[in-house]
Amino acid sequence: AETTSRAHYTWKDPQRPQKARSSTPSDQTVPFYAETTNRDTFTWKDPEKRTKRASPSERELPPFYDETTHKSEFIKKIPTKEQSIKQPTHRSNDVPFYSETSNRAHFTPKQ
Question: Structure pTM?
Answer without folding.
Answer: 0.15
